[in-house]
UniProtKB/TrEMBL annotation:
Gene3D superfamilies: 3.30.300.30, 3.40.50.980, Luciferase, Domain 3. Pfam families: AMP-binding (PF00501), AMP-binding_C (PF13193). GO terms for molecular function: ligase activity, forming carbon-sulfur bonds. Residues 455-532 form the AMP-binding enzyme C-terminal domain. Residues 37-404 form the AMP-dependent synthetase/ligase domain. Keywords: Ligase. It comes from Nocardia uniformis. This is AMP-binding protein.
Length: 549
């Protein structure tokens, strides 16, 4: 297929693109090509399993071609944007490969997204269709999609992945099963084309859509599969919502396919369900966010779990994993821990599987590619001395040069010469590993004294009555900000008081200006769609008058 650039996409400058080709980072292969090749090499190997399906590579390949043909008949075209909101189930893979083959762009929505997120996403992407499911975990996704369609003019089609043909659908919605046609030869996209749009984590206002090309994303998938040592015996359990960049490609489900291994899907990441899935599917690797890792570790430490002996690697990423938790993961689950620090915009760092334990528990790893460029700069953009905290900026063969169709966000988030400003405060150690200190905003500025949320959280986690803790700065007329500690007690019957917390911290020899001004006890932290703790929602809780003591 000839290549015209998607309007609103910022390509790499041609000299950089040429260099990434010369370096063999970008190989000219598309996702469709990879699936075709794997299906030809090992047609009967199992590509995808979930509770209801078990598809070989040949079957997945056939299904994606059949659905691409049907969607083309419906009028879905190259460059069309299609919202995909599906839980972790086999059809997710079928749908995205069908869209990849058509050159249509999945826009990856999370199952937790609702009207407030989906309307702006559909509007900003000018999507023509939504592909979703019926009722899942007692929520009616088809009805949600139908209401989005009524609010966004560009949306013409509503397609539902149903469990059986008896499922009641909204008027005009179509069952995706109607579009599994006899595969026809279709023109396939070019590797330089945008393959899909990802969503930027934690954005507010107009959603920032992240265009990733076949070339750049496949490189990150291939390098991830290499760094994580995947092979045809890999069984990757998609525990986090697969639409997110971490379970999708770090190395995630696409890494598993790259390596000719198996994707196992579980729609529920809690230990009760996920541990059974590990036993049933013989899972070898999975990825978790820290709050989920804590749940798994606590459950495993309590003993009497299903057989987890096939599990070799547990990745923790998406948010800072405190050392206290990191140390428990390996022993509790009988695995090698791998920390993953990444972003949907590109750059992904990993600890390596043979790193010494202090690197694995105390750092967020190093870039996966020797061609990633990193710099740590102060607020004026000057590089800070090695070993000093600063703002991380980066560019490389799989880090975008601009958000989709968003001039303002691009002006804020990229330097004039194309480096992406990650918004993360990091410390680059002499051995090349990064320690992530939080987001640029995760500091409380208390009357000019800066308090790192992460540092204070680490102290609180050492208190036996505290299960988890998050520090938030709240407005104060005198100091500018004061320090509020959200605390989840280890035992709901023992709620640590402000006095207890302050005494504990003072006794550790911590500066007096770092003492929390308030403690708020919560049973659970609010989460983002992918399970990270939502600082924004905690701030809102305070604004709404949460009880402080
Ligand atoms: C991943 O991607 P996003 O786009 O949801 O979020 C990216 C942001 C980073 O800029 C950083 O602030 C934070 O999430 N983050 C971490 C972290 N991993 C991500 N902060 C501290 N420690 C870590 N290990 O979250 C993502 C994408 C690909 C792989 C892994 C995570």
């Amino acid at each position: 297929m000839s290549s015209t650039v998607l309007p609103g996409f910022t390509p790499w400058p041609s000299a950089d693109a040429q260099r990434y080709r010369d370096l063999n980072c970008w190989t000219g292969e598309t996702f469709g090509d990879v699936l075709t090749a794997r299906a030809a090499a090992a047609p009967d190997a199992i590509a995808v399993v979930d509770d209801a399906n078990r598809w070989s590579y040949a079957e997945l390949d056939h299904r994606s071609r059949a659905l691409a043909t049907g969607l083309s008949r419906l009028g879905i075209r190259r460059h069309d944007r299609v919202l995909v909101q599906l839980p972790n189930r086999a059809e997710f893979v079928e749908v995205i490969f069908a869209l990849f083959r058509l050159g249509a762009l999945p826009v990856f929505c999370l199952p937790a997204h609702r009207q407030a997120e989906l309307v702006p996403i559909a509007t900003a992407s000018a999507a023509v269709a939504i592909i979703t499911c019926g009722t899942h975990q007692r929520f009616d996704y088809a009805a949600l999609a139908d209401s989005i369609r009524q609010q966004v003019d560009t949306l013409r089609h509503l397609l539902i992945v149903t469990d059986d043909s008896a499922t009641a659908l909204p008027d005009d919605a179509r069952d995706i099963a109607e579009f599994r046609d006899e595969p026809a030869d279709l023109p396939e996209p070019n590797a330089v084309d945008v393959a899909f749009l990802q969503l930027s984590g934690g954005s507010t206002g107009i959603p920032k859509l992240i265009p990733r090309t076949h070339d750049d994303y496949l490189y990150s998938v291939r390098r991830s599969a290499e760094v994580c040592e995947l092979g045809s015996d890999t069984v990757y359990l998609a525990t986090l919502p697969v639409a997110h960049n971490f379970p999708m490609s770090s190395p995630g489900i696409l890494g598993a396919l790259w390596a000719g291994g198996t994707i196992a899907m579980t729609p529920d990441p809690t230990p009760a369900t996920a541990f059974r899935a590990i036993e049933r599917f013989g899972v070898t690797i999975t990825g978790l966010v820290p709050p989920l890792a804590r749940l798994w570790v606590e459950r495993a430490e309590a003993g009497n779990t299903p057989d987890l002996s096939t599990l070799r690697v547990v990745q923790v990423g998406g948010a800072r994993c405190q050392e206290e938790l990191a140390r428990r993961v390996g022993p509790a689950l009988g695995v090698t821990l791998q920390q993953v620090f990444g972003m949907a915009e590109g750059l992904v760092c990993y600890t390596r599987l043979d790193d010494p334990i202090d690197v694995v528990v105390g750092t967020q790893g190093r870039p996966m590619s020797e061609h990633d460029r990193l710099a740590v700069v102060d607020d004026d953009g000057n590089e800070v001395p090695p070993g000093t905290d600063g703002n991380l900026i980066t560019h490389g063969p799989y880090t975008i040069r601009g958000y989709y169709d968003n001039v303002e966000a691009n002006a804020r988030s990229f330097t004039a010469d194309g480096w992406y400003r990650t918004g993360d405060i990091v410390n680059l150690r002499p051995d090349g590993n990064l320690v992530v200190g939080g987001r640029a905003g995760d500091w409380v500025n208390r009357g000019g004294e800066k308090v790192s949320a992460e540092e204070l959280e680490a102290h609180l986690l050492d208190h036996p009555d505290i299960r988890d803790a998050v520090i938030i700065g709240t407005p104060d007329p005198v100091l500018g900000q004061r320090i509020c500690a959200f605390v989840q007690p280890a035992d709901p019957a023992h709620r640590p008081s402000l006095m207890t917390v302050r005494t504990f911290i003072r006794e550790r020899g911590v500066a007096a200006w770092k003492m929390p001004d308030a403690v708020v006890i919560v049973d659970q932290f609010p989460e983002t769609g992918v399970g990270k703790t939502s600082r924004r929602d905690l701030r809102q809780l305070l604004a709404d008058g949460a009880h402080q003591n």
